[in-house]
Amino acid sequence: MAIIQSVAAWFGYAPRDPVDGNQNAVRTVTKTAKPVTFDSAMTVTAVFASIRLLAETIASMPIEMYTKDKDGTLDAKADHDLIKLLRYKPNKRQNRIEFMEQLMLNLVSDGNAYVRITRIGEKNSRIISLDIINSSNMTVILKNDELIYRHQITSAFSRDFKESDIWHVKLFGNGIKGLSPLQHATKAVAVADASDDKITSLMRNGAKPTGALMTKGNPTAEQRTALRNEMASLTSGDETFMPVLPLDMKFEAISLTPSDIELLATRRFSLEEIARMFGVPSILINDSTQSTNWGSGIASIIEAFHKFNLRPYLERLELSMLTSLVPRKDWDRYQFEIDADAILRSSRKERVAMYNTEISTGQRTPNEIRRAEGWKPQEGGDNLYMQLGFAPLSVVAKQPPPNQTKDTSNE
């Protein structure tokens, strides 16, 4: 069995254990429609829209830090310097939303996000700044079972950091680095980018096909050059040009038309494939072919989007905040929560029905409901309530009928 696994790893059919050295794996895909870089990929609207949707959605969610009691239950919001930093301004240049958008941009595109941690105080116990280092400027090096994070500041200058100085968030991968979604979807992105280039070329060329001038004679080189210059507008230039061909000469198109190569279908499929790559429902990046899902179906789509795509990102971020930014001895004392209730918020009518049930069954107090709605608490609203007309059937059977009363006239 071990031999089979070794052979599979050798031929690239299974993940390999990391070895000492540079962990920035280079994956070369030769059979692509065109070369793909981060900048060129972001010009594909489906890629840009998918990354922006994930980045802006998660960045807009509030972050809270809670203390836990001895049973592991959330007790109260923590009054901690770290959450004040994360909640408002993680560094001198960015507020929370800008910080999280940049972090998610790196994580979603490269599969890795790196944040430099600046500490001060006794034993460097207090974090005063969190600065994102873009993934293309970071090299991860494994040496003697220790990780070195090398920040390439300029072409001639770099700086090394220890594991404790970097908050590294990664997608699934080999345990040291996450796999890059863009890198592993190069073919799909290249097809989409090439399709855009084809449309751009057609529109710039007046949608004229390339072709050849056919004649029965044998023109000389000078005649061919003169004809080529004179008839160039057959395949380019002003759309109103009206050529007059010499006798016994005709124009034959030799390029495929957009319908021949099913250009529109290719673009539509590319949108769906790129959305699939990022785990984003295509309707959420304005796929008009899915417009029939708007209405009652959109709630189910958003719920599935949260459960199967956003939730793994949120869990990953919450746990990495705890393990990278909080001392190990305090892991059992605190818990981070990224609140996704805003995107799952039901309609006003549904919320009123839910709140009524929660109050009447003693699950929440009226003031807890008011705070959830952003309203001021009211006096007397901190009590739990329970309906009294609910009892076991055996107790109800012992009660006298409503119209039967005890006669006390002779007493």
From TrEMBL:
Record organism: Psychrobacter arcticus (strain DSM 17307 / VKM B-2377 / 273-4)
InterPro entries, A to Z: Phage/GTA_portal (IPR006944), Portal_HK97 (IPR006427)
Domain of life: Bacteria
Protein name per its UniProtKB record: Probable phage portal protein
